[in-house]
Write a structure and sequence with these properties.
857 residues, alpha/beta, 7-stranded mixed sheet, 36 helices, 28 strands
Length: 857
């Protein structure tokens, strides 16, 4: 015999599941439990003539071979079938989460896809049964099952499939009017009496910010309808959770409801068996008394409760506040340079107001920039304290329609919470993943370390461990994150931490063999040099702003957003959380990932080039390195900064470093072309012009760099090519400007006219020794430049020099000459040079053949 059944105190979802299971198992007999919910009793009384249900009295357990359970798993709440569950063929259709009690009987967990068991079974029927259809009463009952178990689609466990399956039922004729007849049925007189008894027997239990109600009732008779009553108590008491514990006929039953994520009922009550969700659960207790059940539940709550976050857990700190007497114009500049969307206003160390960036900009645009902030700040403050719970903060934002709340400890301003901070806390780092229409790639999760070498994996794991030990947040930032997204190898490890870089570095050094730690207290940084050749730069989170254009930045403590805001471009303002709490979480406030996808170079704020004009050269460098385009607004701001003459105010030491970086990068030729686009080459020398001839030489130089393996300074080669139009005298001026020593200038100041003379002489060289003698006076970088400017015949000679002649090792040594009777003296060097020249000119030189040619044998 094949039996289809469900749990005791059956609900509408269970009844609908029985009907659908019978479609999948047409030979099965539907057997109702002995105890039914009130809504089910009413339904059965209406439809009993057309529902082919059996009672337990109709069944002989000895004849059962197949048992099909719906809306439940395992032996709990299925008496008397619990006695045969381990001895028959078992099939389970249950949408509840797996737990320690039911995992023995099933392995499939569909709770993330279905909030109702009716939805789960209906979906299976539609997929497995050809020409599937339901009668009118079956359509109506299935719709009731979905509505009831999803709380009219309002329970947080409701899933997309529930809407989809309900849509199917309505589309095929289910009657929506039946919902109001069976869902939220008014309480009858017996239920009202039971409700009053439960309310009178209620006690409060407080933990953290949660208010929990325990209602108890003992009766000789069966106590039904508890599931309807518990929702009423939840409303009346306005509690975070309610537990109703009833004792009837020697059996203790527990029903729980929760409206708080901090009270996961499946974890609190799951240890006792039963089934349900984090917000609704029922089970039985095998102890002896109601008091024992209450104590057991409280113990579970104390052990497992997730305390609600407080203001101090989510606030941004430290806070950038401004003084009330600051002018609106100064406040506007500060908002641009710090990226803050508003400021708390202080006076005599007390918080006196708030003002937003939008308000500041509007007032400045209306010509009120000279007036003090105090005149227009918002003085009607909505504040919170460091222990204010998240739920209260949410209320404050909604009720007052505000964008930020200052956080105080006593009378001291210690932090601020923006609307984004709140959303981050409520919706799992809302702003970090808010990146337009792009999808984050697979690497941006806790497995991102698998894309790095073994040593770096270990380093990241230790950083995560130290984050826990020291309670410091830690982030991987900058170029290494950008290149991870681009699939470009990068092992330059830059870390920022939330409290103190030096103590973090000291703790880090305990786990690795360290050569030394170099710290800079002024800039709150530390660098750890490992014996395996890696180095890790660690900095304390900081904000920067510039007192005036081209000045060095003023550094203050900051948040991760502040730290990323001070970066040059959006593609470099990405971070990955490598701390203990959110390991692998991407942080992208400025849509850097989106710009990487669109291959754009974009600055973070409008005064970026004014603050640091060297970013203009950097924009050209990154655009050339990754073959990106400088975004339109960024391009226009570059033009504005150049027209303001900001680059001319910089020291040549800073410019030299940026030029050297671009000349040493992946694609210097394209970078130089971009520099020329913005007329920046004239900063090096006014007589540098990127004509077709120079561009051709630069492109050839790129090919040389990518194809020939030469041990030279390629940035220097590109500098020589870039300045190849200049005379020796002009080159000396450039090298002096760059701060190079006189010996450097003597070696490399081979101007255009000198090179023309060298190439002319090279044309007349026919013997290898002549080529060697002419070219060996000059550095390799100059030789390659000569090759780029040469005729085809001279190119062959230069190639022969670089790859053959220059690599020859002299066969005749000084000791050979001494053995022949020659004594060291003024002519000794000449003999050696002559021997080497003879060697170069021979096809197969030997010691004897060279000495014979010298007439020494």
């Amino acid at each position: 015999m094949e039996i289809i059944t469900t749990h005791h105190i059956t609900d509408l979802d269970g009844i609908a599941s029985l009907i659908l299971a019978s479609k999948l198992h047409p030979k099965g007999k539907i057997v109702l439990p002995t105890t039914l919910g009130n809504s089910v009793k009413k339904l059965i009384s209406l439809f009993k003539n057309i529902l082919n249900f059996y009672s337990l009295n109709d069944i002989d357990l000895k004849n059962v071979t197949n048992l099909i359970l719906v809306d439940t798993s395992g032996p709990n709440r299925i008496n008397p079938f619990d006695k045969i569950i381990d001895h028959v063929k078992l099939t389970i259709y249950d949408h509840h989460p797996l737990n320690s009690q039911n995992i023995k009987y099933r392995t499939k967990d569909v709770s993330n896809s279905y909030g109702s068991n009716t939805s789960y079974l209906l979906d299976i029927c539609l997929k497995k049964i050809k020409n599937f259809n339901l009668k009118q009463h079956e359509l109506d009952i299935c719709l009731l099952g979905i509505y009831e178990d999803t709380g009219n689609f309002l329970f947080p466990t409701t899933k997309f499939k529930d809407f989809q399956m309900a849509g199917y039922l309505v589309e095929h004729g289910a009657n929506l009017n039946i919902i109001k007849e069976f869902i939220n049925i008014p309480l009858d007189s017996n239920q009202k009496n039971t409700l009053n008894l439960l309310l009178n027997n209620s006690t409060y239990f407080y933990l953290g910010n949660e208010t929990i109600i325990f209602s108890t009732l003992s009766s000789e008779k069966f106590i039904g309808g508890i599931s309807e009553l518990i929702d009423e108590i939840l409303k009346i008491k306005n509690a975070s959770g309610v537990f109703i514990i009833t004792e009837s006929k020697g059996k203790i039953s527990i029903v729980g409801r929760s409206t708080s994520d901090n009270l996961p009922l499946d974890k609190i009550l799951g240890i006792f068996g039963g089934g349900g969700y984090p917000n609704a659960y029922s089970t039985t207790f095998k102890g002896q008394t109601i008091d024992q059940a209450t104590k057991a539940i409280k113990h579970q709550i104390n052990t497992l409760i997730n305390f609600e976050k407080k203001a101090e857990d989510i606030m941004s700190s430290p806070v950038k506040a401004i003084f009330s007497n600051l002018s609106l114009k100064e406040a506007n500049i500060l908002s641009e340079r710090t990226g803050h969307s508003g400021f708390p206003v202080v006076e005599n160390d007390r918080l006196v107001g708030l003002i937003s960036k939008k308000e500041i900009s509007r007032l400045v645009n209306h010509g009120m920039g000279k007036l003090p902030v105090s005149k227009y700040m918002n003085k009607n403050l909505i504040i919170a304290f460091k222990d204010t719970p998240l739920s209260k903060l949410k209320e404050l934002f909604i009720e007052n329609n505000i964008g930020r709340i200052p956080i105080l400890h006593k009378d001291t301003l210690i932090g601020i919470i923006t609307r984004t901070d709140l959303l981050n806390a409520l919706y799992d780092n809302y702003s970090y993943s808010k990146i337009g229409t792009q999808y984050l790639p697979e690497i941006l999760n806790k497995n991102f370390i698998n894309f790095f070498p073994t040593t770096l994996k270990e380093i990241f794991k230790i950083i995560k461990k130290i984050s826990l030990i020291q309670n410091q947040n830690a982030y991987l930032i900058g170029g290494i994150v950008r290149d991870l997204l681009l699939g470009v190898p990068n092992e330059d490890i830059d870390i920022v931490v939330s409290k103190d870089a030096y103590t973090f570095a000291q703790e880090f050094s305990k786990f690795f063999q360290v050569e030394k730690i170099v710290s800079h207290e002024k800039f709150k940084t530390a660098t750890v040099f490992l014996k395996n050749s890696y180095s890790i730069d660690i900095a304390t989170l900081r904000s920067e702003y510039y007192q005036y254009p081209t000045a060095l930045p003023t550094v203050e403590e900051g948040t991760i957003r502040d730290d990323l805001f001070r970066r040059d471009f959006t593609i470099n303002a990405l971070a990955i959380d490598i701390g203990n709490k959110n390991f692998g979480k991407i942080i992208d406030y400025f849509k850097g990932y989106e710009d990487i996808g669109n291959k754009l170079i974009r600055i973070i704020h409008k005064v970026s080039f004014i603050d640091d004009p060297t970013r203009i050269i950097r924009a050209c460098r990154f655009a050339s390195r990754y073959d990106f385009t400088i975004e339109k607004d960024t391009h226009n701001l570059i033009i504005d900064a150049i027209e303001m003459g900001l680059l001319s105010r910089l020291s040549w030491n800073r410019l030299k470093s940026e030029f050297q970086h671009i000349l040493n990068d992946k694609n210097p030729a394209k970078g130089i072309k971009l520099l020329n686009k913005y007329s920046l080459l004239q900063l090096i020398h006014e007589n540098i012009f990127l004509d077709n001839s120079l561009q051709k030489k630069l492109n050839l130089c790129n090919k040389v760099k990518n194809s020939l393996k030469l041990n030279i300074n390629f940035w220097l080669l590109f500098l020589l090519v870039l300045t190849s139009q200049l005379t020796s005298q002009e080159l000396n001026i450039v090298f002096l400007k760059f701060g190079y020593q006189k010996s450097f200038s003597n070696n490399y100041s081979i101007g255009i006219y000198q090179r023309e003379e060298i190439l002319k002489n090279l044309e007349n060289c026919s013997l290898p020794s002549d080529i060697y003698e002419l070219l060996n006076k000059y550095p390799d970088e100059t030789i390659i430049l000569l090759g780029l400017e040469s005729s085809s015949s001279n190119k062959r000679k230069i190639k022969s020099y670089l790859f053959k002649l220059k690599r020859k090792i002299a066969i005749i040594k000084g000791e050979d000459l001494i053995k022949l009777g020659l004594l060291p003296g003024p002519d000794f060097k000449g003999y050696l040079q002559k021997a080497f020249s003879i060697q170069l000119n021979m096809k197969k030189p030997t010691r004897d053949s060279i000495l014979k040619e010298m007439k020494l044998l």
